[in-house]
C-alpha cells in the first residue's frame, strides 16, 4: 500500500473509495526506453502488465542484461557477507550523488572481487599452516613431557637393576651370568605415532585401536586445557594429544587408517631430546613469522573492505535499480518494426500529467528524435485498488487488507475502522491506569519513529512499531472507557464529584449497598465509585456492560448494512438497494433494533421488566399479554408488526432478486446473435458493474442457490453476530476482575504484613503481573477480539474484499527490499 505524506501535486486523500484508475499504453523508442522506465520508476505510479507472459525468461529481449545484473548482485552479496564477518559497516548514502555508469561498476566489482578472493585464499592457506603449527607445538610439548618422564623413569629403573646385579655377582656362578645376558640382535624395536584426536572421540578411538591390534599397542593421552583451532575445519575444538606405540608394519597401517577415520591429525616426533628442542625452536620461529604475515594480510583485507564499504550502498542501489529496470523492460513487447517498445499498465487518473511529463523528459535527456506516445485504453478488466495513506492510516488499512483487498471503488471499511477498532478494544480494556501505561509506550515509539524506522528491530518490536498509531488510539480510548468504568488499576476515584450516596447509619457496611441513601446529584460522568466493592457491584456492572455490548453491536451491524447501501448506490444497482439493503435493515432492526430500543426505554424509565421474557415470548407466544413486562403503550401491537415485517423480509431477500437478474439478463441479450462483438463485451461490462455475475450463460440455479445461502447466512448471522458482541462484556468483566485480584490479593495482602521485605516482593509481583498479564496478554486478547468483530460481524455485511492491490513499479520499494 503506497504511503503518501501529503503535499506536492497529489489531490486530497480520500479513503472511502479507491483512486480512479485507467489502463494506459506507452509506446517508447528503443533508444529512450531505459531512461523512460527509470523515470517512471522514480515516479512510482505505473503498474506494468506483462505482455510477454507466453515467453520464458531466457527468450525475452533483455535476458542478457538481467543475467549481467544478477552476476553483479552476486558479487555485492559476497562483499556484504565479507564485511559482515569482518565487522565493517557500509557507509550510508547521506545525499544524492551523481549517477554512476553501470559498466564502470561492473569492472570495479570484478577487480575488487578478484583481489578479495586472492587475499582470502592466501589468508586461508596461512591460517591453515598456522593452525597446523600450533597443533604441532602442542604435540611437541605434551609428547616431549611424556618421553622425558619415561626417560627419567627408565634411568631410575636401570640404575636400580645395576645395583641389584652387583649384589648378585658375588653369589652367582659365571655360567649362570652368561645365560642371563641378552642377545642384542633379539631385542624388539617399537615404533610410535603422535598426533591430536577430538576429545569426544578419544575413548572410542582408544577402544578401536585396542581391538584392531588385539591389544598389541600401548597408548598414552594427554588433555589440552584450551580449545584449539582445527586446521581442516577452521573451527575451535577440544582435543587430546596421543602417543601410540606399536610393533610391526601391519599394526602401523591399521593405526594410520583408524587415525584417518577419526579425523586425528598426525605429526612427526623424534625420541632424541636434542632434536625435540631444535624442532620446538623452529616451530616457534615459524609461528611468529606466520602471525606477522597473517596480521598484515588482515589489515590489507580490512582496508580493502572499508574501501568497498564507502561505495557499497551506492553500487547496491545502482545494481538493484538496473535489474528492476530490465525486468520491467522485459514486460514490454517489441512492435513489428523492432524500433519501439509497447507497454501497458494501470495508473491513477490523477497521475496522467506526471507520467506524460516523465516521458517528455526521458525523450529529451536521451536525445531521442522521436517522442514517446501516451494513450488511455478502454478495457473490461477489473483495475487494481489503490488507497493513498499516510503513516497514521497505513496500519488501519493493513488491518482491513489482512482480511481481503477491497474491490475497485468498493466502500473502504478503514474510514470507520480508525475509530471503531480502538473503541471496541477499549470497551474490553477499560482502565485508565492501564491506558496511560500503553499511551506512554506508544508515545515512545511515535517520538522516536525517525530513529527506530532506520534500525533493524525484532519481529515483535517491528510489529508494535508498525502499529504505533493504532496502539496510540487504543490507549486514548482505553483512558476514556476507564474513566467511564471509574477504574484505575481496579481502584475507583471520585474524580468528577463526590459519590451520590451516603450511609444511613453506623451499621452501613462496605460489603453491601443496603443502608445507602442518595444525598447528592447523580455522579456526572461514568460509574459512581460507591458501587465498587459492594455486593451489588457485579450484578450492576454485568447488566450495564451486557446491554451496552448489544447496543454497540447492533449499531455497528447497522453501519455495515448502510455501507452496503452506499455501495449499491455507487454502482447504481437498484436491485441491491430494494432486495438486499431494505429487507436486511428491516429484519435486523425489527428484532435486535427493537431489543436495543427496549434497553434504552428501560434505562430511562427505571422499569423492572424482564427483557429476556419479552424477546422470547415475542416469538413463542406473540398474542399473549405482556403484563408487568410492558414498557410502553401498544407494545404488543408494535411487536406483532415488527415480527410480521421480520418474517416478510426473509422471502423478500430470497425470491425476487434471482428472477429480476434473470429478466435483466434476457433483456440485455435479446437478439445478441445479430450484435457486434464489442457490444457483447460492453453488455457484459455493464452487467459486472451493475452487480451481476457477468457470465455469458446465465445459470439461474446457481444464482438462486447463491441467494439462498446469502439469505440463510444473514438471518442466522443476525442472531449469532449479536451474541458475538457479548464478548465485549465478557472480556471487560475479565479484565476488571483480574486487575482487582492482582490489587487485592497481591498488593493489599503484602501491605498487611507490615514487613518492608514482603511489601517490596509484593510490589514487584504486582508490577510483573500487571505488565505481563494485563498489559501484554490482555492487550493482545482484546486486540484479536476487536479484530474478529470487525472482520466477521461488521465487514461481512457489505465488504467483498476480492480485489487486488495496486503494485506500481517504484524504486522506493526496490531500495527497501532484501534479496
UniProtKB/TrEMBL annotation:
Record's protein name: V-type proton ATPase subunit a
Phylogenetic classification of the source organism: Eukaryota, Viridiplantae, Streptophyta, Embryophyta, Tracheophyta
Coiled-coil blocks: 102-136
Pfam families noted in UniProt: V_ATPase_I
Cellular compartments annotated: Membrane
Keywords recorded for this protein, A-Z: Coiled coil, Hydrogen ion transport, Ion transport, Membrane, Transmembrane, Transmembrane helix, Transport
Nucleotide-binding found in the keyword field: no
Membrane topology, from the record: Multi-pass membrane protein
Transmembrane feature ranges: 423-447, 468-485, 548-566, 578-601, 637-655, 756-777
Entry keyword annotation includes Nucleotidyltransferase: no
GO terms of biological process kind: proton transmembrane transport
Amino acid at each position: 500500500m503506497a504511503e503518501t505524506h501529503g503535499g506536492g501535486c497529489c489531490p486530497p486523500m480520500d479513503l472511502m473509495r479507491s483512486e480512479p484508475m485507467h489502463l494506459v499504453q506507452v509506446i517508447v523508442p528503443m533508444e529512450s526506453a531505459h531512461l523512460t522506465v527509470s523515470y517512471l520508476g522514480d515516479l512510482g505510479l505505473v503498474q506494468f502488465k506483462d505482455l510477454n507472459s507466453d515467453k520464458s525468461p531466457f527468450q525475452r529481449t533483455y535476458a542478457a542484461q538481467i543475467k549481467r545484473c544478477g552476476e553483479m548482485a552476486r558479487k555485492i552479496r559476497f562483499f556484504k557477507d565479507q564485511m559482515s564477518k569482518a565487522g565493517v559497516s557500509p557507509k550510508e548514502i547521506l545525499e544524492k550523488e551523481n549517477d554512476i555508469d553501470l559498466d564502470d561498476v561492473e569492472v570495479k566489482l570484478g577487480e575488487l572481487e578478484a583481489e578479495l578472493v586472492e587475499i582470502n585464499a592466501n589468508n586461508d592457506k596461512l591460517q591453515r599452516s598456522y593452525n597446523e603449527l600450533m597443533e604441532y607445538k602442542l604435540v611437541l610439548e605434551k609428547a616431549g613431557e611424556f618421553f622425558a618422564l619415561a626417560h627419567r623413569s627408565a634411568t631410575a629403573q636401570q640404575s636400580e637393576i645395576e645395583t641389584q646385579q652387583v649384589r648378585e655377582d658375588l653369589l652367582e656362578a659365571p655360567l649362570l651370568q652368561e645365560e642371563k645376558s641378552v642377545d642384542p640382535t633379539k631385542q624388539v624395536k617399537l615404533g610410535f605415532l603422535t598426533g591430536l584426536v577430538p576429545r569426544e572421540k578419544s575413548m572410542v578411538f582408544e577402544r578401536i585401536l585396542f581391538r584392531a591390534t588385539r591389544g598389541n599397542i600401548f597408548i598414552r593421552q594427554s588433555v589440552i586445557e584450551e580449545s584449539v583451532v582445527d586446521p581442516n575445519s577452521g573451527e575451535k575444538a577440544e582435543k587430546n594429544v596421543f602417543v601410540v606405540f606399536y610393533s610391526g608394519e601391519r599394526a602401523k597401517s591399521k593405526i594410520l587408517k583408524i587415525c584417518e577415520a577419526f579425523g586425528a591429525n598426525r605429526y612427526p616426533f623424534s625420541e632424541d631430546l636434542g632434536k625435540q628442542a631444535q624442532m620446538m625452536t623452529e616451530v616457534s620461529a615459524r609461528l611468529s613469522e606466520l602471525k606477522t604475515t597473517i596480521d598484515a594480510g588482515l589489515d590489507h583485507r580490512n582496508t580493502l573492505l572499508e574501501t568497498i564499504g564507502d561505495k557499497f550502498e551506492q553500487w547496491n542501489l545502482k545494481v538493484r535499480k538496473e535489474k528492476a529496470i530490465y525486468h520491467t523492460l522485459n514486460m514490454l513487447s517489441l512492435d513489428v518494426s523492432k524500433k519501439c517498445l509497447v507497454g501497458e499498465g494501470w495508473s491513477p487518473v490523477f497521475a496522467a500529467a506526471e507520467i506524460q511529463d516523465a516521458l517528455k523528459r526521458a525523450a529529451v535527456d536521451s536525445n531521442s528524435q522521436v517522442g514517446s506516445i501516451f494513450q488511455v485504453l478502454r478495457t473490461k478488466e477489473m483495475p487494481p485498488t489503490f488507497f493513498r495513506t499516510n503513516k497514521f492510516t497505513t496500519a488501519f488499512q493493513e488491518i482491513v487488507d489482512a482480511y481481503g483487498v477491497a474491490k475497485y471503488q468498493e466502500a473502504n471499511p478503514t474510514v470507520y475502522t480508525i475509530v471503531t477498532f480502538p473503541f471496541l478494544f477499549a470497551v474490553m480494556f477499560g482502565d485508565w491506569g492501564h491506558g496511560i501505561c500503553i499511551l506512554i509506550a506508544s508515545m515512545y515509539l511515535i517520538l522516536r519513529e525517525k530513529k527506530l524506522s532506520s534500525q533493524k528491530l525484532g519481529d515483535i518490536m517491528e510489529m508494535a512499531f508498525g502499529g504505533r498509531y493504532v496502539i496510540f488510539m487504543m490507549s486514548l480510548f482505553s483512558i476514556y472507557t476507564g474513566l467511564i468504568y471509574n477504574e484505575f488499576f481496579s481502584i475507583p476515584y471520585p474524580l468528577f464529584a463526590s459519590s451520590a450516596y451516603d450511609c444511613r447509619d453506623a451499621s452501613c457496611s462496605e460489603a453491601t449497598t443496603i443502608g445507602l441513601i442518595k444525598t447528592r446529584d447523580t455522579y456526572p460522568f461514568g460509574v459512581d465509585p460507591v458501587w465498587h466493592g459492594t455486593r451489588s457491584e457485579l450484578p450492576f456492572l454485568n447488566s450495564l456492560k451486557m446491554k451496552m455490548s448489544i447496543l454497540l453491536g447492533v449499531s455497528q451491524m447497522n453501519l455495515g448494512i448502510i455501507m452496503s447501501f452506499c455501495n449499491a448506490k455507487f454502482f447504481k444497482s437498484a436491485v441491491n438497494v430494494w432486495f438486499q439493503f431494505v429487507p436486511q435493515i428491516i429484519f435486523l432492526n425489527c428484532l435486535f433494533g427493537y431489543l436495543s430500543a427496549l434497553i434504552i426505554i428501560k434505562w430511562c424509565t427505571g422499569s423492572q421488566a424482564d427483557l429476556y421474557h419479552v424477546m422470547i415470548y415475542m416469538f413463542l407466544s406473540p398474542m399473549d399479554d405482556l403484563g408487568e413486562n410492558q414498557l410502553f403503550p401498544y407494545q404488543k401491537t408494535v411487536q406483532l408488526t415488527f415480527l410480521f415485517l421480520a418474517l416478510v423480509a426473509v422471502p423478500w431477500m430470497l425470491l425476487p432478486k434471482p428472477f429480476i437478474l434473470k429478466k435483466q439478463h434476457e433483456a440485455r441479450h435479446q437478439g445478441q446473435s445479430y450484435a457486434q462483438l464489442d457490444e457483447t463485451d460492453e453488455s457484459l461490462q455493464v452487467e459486472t458493474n451493475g452487480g451481476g455475475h457477468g457470465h455469458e450463460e446465465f445459470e439461474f440455479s446457481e444464482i438462486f442457490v447463491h441467494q439462498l445461502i446469502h439469505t440463510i447466512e444473514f438471518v442466522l448471522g443476525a442472531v449469532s453476530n449479536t451474541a458475538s458482541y457479548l464478548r465485549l462484556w465478557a472480556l471487560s468483566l475479565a479484565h476488571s476482575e483480574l486487575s482487582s485480584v492482582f490489587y487485592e490479593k497481591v498488593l493489599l495482602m503484602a501491605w498487611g504484613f507490615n514487613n518492608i521485605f514482603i511489601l517490596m516482593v509484593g510490589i514487584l509481583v504486582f508490577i510483573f503481573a500487571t505488565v505481563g498479564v494485563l498489559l501484554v496478554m490482555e492487550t493482545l486478547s482484546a486486540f484479536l477480539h476487536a479484530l474478529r468483530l470487525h472482520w466477521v460481524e461488521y465487514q461481512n455485511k457489505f465488504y467483498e474484499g476480492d480485489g487486488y492491490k495496486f503494485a506500481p513499479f517504484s524504486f522506493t520499494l526496490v531500495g527497501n527490499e532484501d534479496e
